């Protein structure tokens, strides 16, 4: 069993090329295991203002284009741009349609002109960005006055069961260190965007065994790219130790994996 989890954040973020390559390789398998991603993105869509109809939207970190297609269906008369850092994801998404344009790009340096979007939508992508202040600055720049930046991300508390179980086994880095929710609050408050809503909500998935969880993380492309991670395959003794430690969390539904999701709706002042 290989050691799998999510890449790290400030204090040792993996090279963006590694992140892009990992998700590119996972493009074909991603949607088959993306239950959390679909649930979170759908919840983010529901949080948009009821009477809000953008003329042009950006799906930032579009992945396989699942929510680009959802945005195109919800806002049928709008033009849409699907953007992702992973070329493999774009190659998968493009034939399925939804967006008017598919662009390879970085959320910290958007290849778009100023004041060209009414909506920037980003579901479970910005946790890969080391400089979230730049993400906010770029969203502010490309939004028209009155435009909306809606994002879902992950914060501290995500995969704590897996982290704590590994901690009982060895001292290696196995699970990502996410931003504190307070950091999101601070950066959003100082972004120049009006905070319409900003909150956290746990999403818990259940698995029959540890291997099912790690297989899903691999299929999502969410490999452990942390500095300090173990090299190569994880030894059998450590895997058995992980399984034993994780069993302490078992519930009637199975082994829980908690994702602490940040939901935000921000508005650019008129």
TrEMBL record:
Protein name as catalogued: Malonyl-[acyl-carrier protein] O-methyltransferase
MF-aspect GO terms: carboxyl-O-methyltransferase activity; malonyl-CoA methyltransferase activity; S-adenosylmethionine-dependent methyltransferase activity
Keywords assigned by UniProt, alphabetized: Biotin biosynthesis, Methyltransferase, S-adenosyl-L-methionine, Transferase
Coiled coil, from the record: none
CDD domains: AdoMet_MTases (cd02440)
Pathway(s): Cofactor biosynthesis; biotin biosynthesis
HAMAP family: BioC (MF_00835)
GO biological process: biotin biosynthetic process; methylation
A Pfam family assignment: Methyltransf_11
Residues covered by the Methyltransferase type domain: 58-151
Protein EC: 2.1.1.197
Record family assignment: Belongs to the methyltransferase superfamily.
Role this protein plays: Converts the free carboxyl group of a malonyl-thioester to its methyl ester by transfer of a methyl group from S-adenosyl-L-methionine (SAM). It allows to synthesize pimeloyl-ACP via the fatty acid synthetic pathway.
Entry annotated with the keyword Metal-binding: no
Reactions listed under catalytic activity: malonyl-[ACP] + S-adenosyl-L-methionine = malonyl-[ACP] methyl ester + S-adenosyl-L-homocysteine
InterPro entries named among the record's database cross-references: BioC (IPR011814), Malonyl-ACP_OMT (IPR050602), Methyltransf_11 (IPR013216), SAM-dependent_MTases_sf (IPR029063)
